[in-house]
Specification:
Blueprint: E1 24-28, E2 30-31, E3 50-51, H1 54-77, H2 86-95, H3 104-113, E4 118-122, H4 131-144, E5 150-155, H5 157-162, H6 165-173, E6 178-184, H7 188-193, H8 200-212, E7 216-221, H9 227-245, E8 249-252, H10 262-268, H11 277-290, E9 296-298, E10 322-323, H12 328-343
Parallel strand pairs: 1-4, 4-5, 5-6, 6-7, 7-8, 8-9
Antiparallel strand pairs: 2-3, 9-10
């Protein structure tokens, strides 16, 4: 029997779908969310934010390396060259039965199957770490797994806005390539309502500083989060902020009421009136009309559920989306098709 301790490492719950699908290595630098006040969000609730030490992070990376090594070694014994095999995974589980209850085991197996090319640093805002341990952890991750060609993380725009340009540049050079930022809305009143802890100006400053430091930037916005009362301001002001940032990616995450959240309770009490699917699509049309960016606009999430005339998804759910301004008219044409389907 093998010892499960040599494979002990933490794996968080959340990551962006675009980060390799199920093929990204998940490495936990921090635990949970340091902000955790957003009224629309049920993630990390009742969980305490914690910074992890550099020694803890390195120990996790070492444990992942042990697991990857053993999977590869057993695979080579079963005749697989340069990849991992299902038979090797079964053999390792027989040797160490506790792996059946290890959340990170299937993650590492899938990551190796995918070529071991991408990694996502967890949890909600890794950039809140001090520069020295963050840089050291990133370098150690890259050195341990040279097959990795992209490392990404969530970050808050307000955190980025507070960082010195040279600090961000050092973090980027250490091996962090892409940042995922939750814009949600560019409207000041909506940002206050959802307790985002950011302003349109801090969103713009954080996004621009990240781009200038050399990061790829993905900005997420939530069609419908302003409800019936604020949909037009939400559309216009979100587009305005995105125009000022001009990120590499703009990703649509349509608003849905999450049971147990303050906004869900507000909707039950009729204080917040969510948009209908058709109204959400009309808001989306105004946002797209107002966008003036060179970004890729993406609908890479099941929440973009609107259907076309054939009954399929209206938008591609591909991670690379639609290139603006070249495909802007195509997106607007698709929205008109979706609205036409809503009429029937």
């Amino acid at each position: 029997m093998g010892s499960i301790q040599r494979y002990h490492f933490e794996t968080g719950v959340y990551r962006p779908p675009s980060e390799g699908g199920s093929d990204s290595l998940l490495v936990r630098f921090t635990r949970n969310c340091p902000w955790n006040h957003c009224t629309f969000c049920g993630m990390y609730k009742n969980e305490k934010f914690e910074l992890r030490t550099l020694d803890e992070i390195k120990a996790d990376i070492d444990a992942i390396a042990e697991l990857a090594h053993d999977l590869r070694e057993l695979s080579s014994k079963t005749g697989e060259s340069g990849s991992v095999s299902h038979e090797a995974a079964v053999m390792l589980m027989r040797r160490t039965p506790e792996l059946e209850y290890h959340n990170g085991f299937p993650m590492v197996y899938q990551w190796l199957l995918g070529g071991g090319k991408t990694a996502f640093v967890q949890d909600a805002n890794s950039l809140i770490m001090k520069m020295e341990p963050l840089v050291a952890a990133l370098k150690y991750l890259r050195e341990t797994f040279p097959s990795i060609n992209r490392v990404t993380s969530y970050a808050r725009s307000k955190t980025l806005a507070r960082k010195k340009p040279e600090t961000l540049e050092n973090i980027r050079k250490a091996g962090l390539d892409r940042l995922h930022l939750g814009l949600e809305s560019g409207d000041e009143e909506i940002l206050k309502m959802i307790k985002k802890g950011a302003t349109p100006e801090s969103h713009i400053e954080g996004g621009q500083k990240a781009i200038k430091a050399g990061f790829q930037v993905s900005e997420y916005w939530m069609p419908g989060v302003g409800g019936k009362a604020c949909w037009e301001n939400h559309a216009r002001n979100t587009a305005r902020v995105l125009n000022d940032i001009d990120p590499h990616y703009i990703r649509s995450r349509p608003f849905r009421l999450w049971p147990g959240t303050p906004l869900h309770q507000a909707a039950r009490e009729k204080a917040f009136k969510p948009l209908s699917p058709r109204e959400q699509l009309e808001e989306l049309r105004l946002t797209m009309e107002t966008l003036d960016v060179s970004s890729k606009v993406c609908f890479d999430h099941a929440g973009n559920y609107w259907k076309n005339r054939r009954g399929g998804y209206l938008f591609s759910h591909g991670y690379e989306g639609y290139k603006f301004p070249e495909e802007k008219q195509r997106v607007l044409t698709l929205i008109e098709e979706g609205l036409d389907c809503q009429r029937h």
